[in-house]
Amino acid sequence: MPDGEEPLPRRRGRRRKKSRSKLKIVIYTLIAMFAVVVFAVAGFALYLNHLLDSNVRRSGLLPPNESRLSRATTAGNSQNILLLGSDSRTEDLGDSSRADVIQLVHVSDDRKTVQVIHFPRDLYVDIPGHRKNKINAAYALGGAPLLVQTMEGMLDVPIDHVAQIGFDGFKDLTNTVGGVDVNVDQATTSGHFTFTEGINHMKGDAALAFVRERHQLSEGDISRGKRQQAWIKALLTKSLKRGTLSNPTRLASMIDDTTKNLVVDNAFSTGKMRDLGFSLRGLRSSGVTFLTAPFTGFDTVNGIGSVDTVDQTKMKQLGDALRTDKVKDLPNQIANPG
User: Fold this and answer.
1) Hey, which of 1, 17, 85, 160 has its CA 20 to 30 A from 65?
2) Start and end of every Cell envelope-related transcriptional attenuator domain (predicted)?
């Protein structure tokens, strides 16, 4: 063996040590990268939780428990959430004179479908403790708690939660997602904006003008409610598109836009909101349908003015469907009058 040359076994031993050393470095690097990802995701989740905690306001929007209806076992874990929209130009979402949007959101037990039911403000209904009046009068007389009692009495179905959002929240959200494509069924001109029949791309200000219009529409507030639903549908479609919710920056902005203009009932905790949102992670825009509460036509009542007459038979069918979590099986003519 030449002088200075190491035996072959020792060379192989060093190579094995170097290979093991490189393998350890790779493993440690992967572990470190995984830890960074985990901490980043956890940190982002904590940030979103912080947005919910700091932005969402809570208030007594539900009536006292002793006046509430009990949940039917046939409802399973479905949820009925009353969504109230305010067109107020002020910061006071609790202004008892305004409830420009009354939509009942039914989330199915299997979380595969959501139905959004518009209740026109002029529906002529029985208001507990008061004479018969427009449903919007319940809000003016006793705020959200009296409106909840009125709707529960009309439908014979408990409402689980109430969420009230200002139109500015929808406006900001519309801008955050880059505008939305709204299907317009009646051409109108509102302020600086002209809307033609068919698909119209709208940014926040245009969308607000679109849903605020009422006087040019064929059925007044009925048509206005359908416009509100068309806007909500366009927002959902854009928000549920692949890439929108997977973009952390955009997702955080969307949650911020929505929650900073949001008031919910005291029982709707951050944990419940988060769990509900997570349970709907598989929902697609095709699983969301929009309905209008049944009415038979229009009338005029002395001292009250123009009203929408409730179709009592179909309203009972709607209540039965909500109570048994079968709203998705309703014939179109039950909750889509006209």
Assistant:
1) 85
2) 98-239
pLDDT digits 0-9 by tens, 20-31: 666 656 565 565
CA-based angle 107:310:304, to the nearest 5?
Answer: 120
Distance CA 200, CA 179 (A): 10
Which CATH superfamily does the domain covering 61-335 fall into?
LCP protein (3.40.630.190)
Neighbour tally for 265: CB within 10 Å: 22
Helix axes 135-155, 312-323, angle to 10 degrees: 60
Distances 298 to 141, 255, 308, 310 between C-alpha atoms, Å? 23, 39, 5, 9
CB 161 within 8 A of CB 153: no
Identify which has the larger pLDDT, 156 or 191: 156
Q: Distance between CA atoms of 99 and 235, rounded to whole angstroms? A: 21
pLDDT of residue 16: 60
CA distance linking residue 161 with residue 331, whole number of Å = 26
Measured CA to CA in angstroms, residue 130 lies from 96, 126, 137, 212, 311 at distances of 16, 8, 10, 29, 21
CA atoms within 13 A on the CB side of 208: 18
- In this predicted structure, the answer to whether residue 103 has a pLDDT above a threshold of 60 is yes
**Domain range summary for the chain, segments of one domain joined by +:** 1-55, 61-335
Tell me how far apart the alpha carbons of residues 220 and 129 are, in angstroms, rounded to a whole number.
Answer: 29
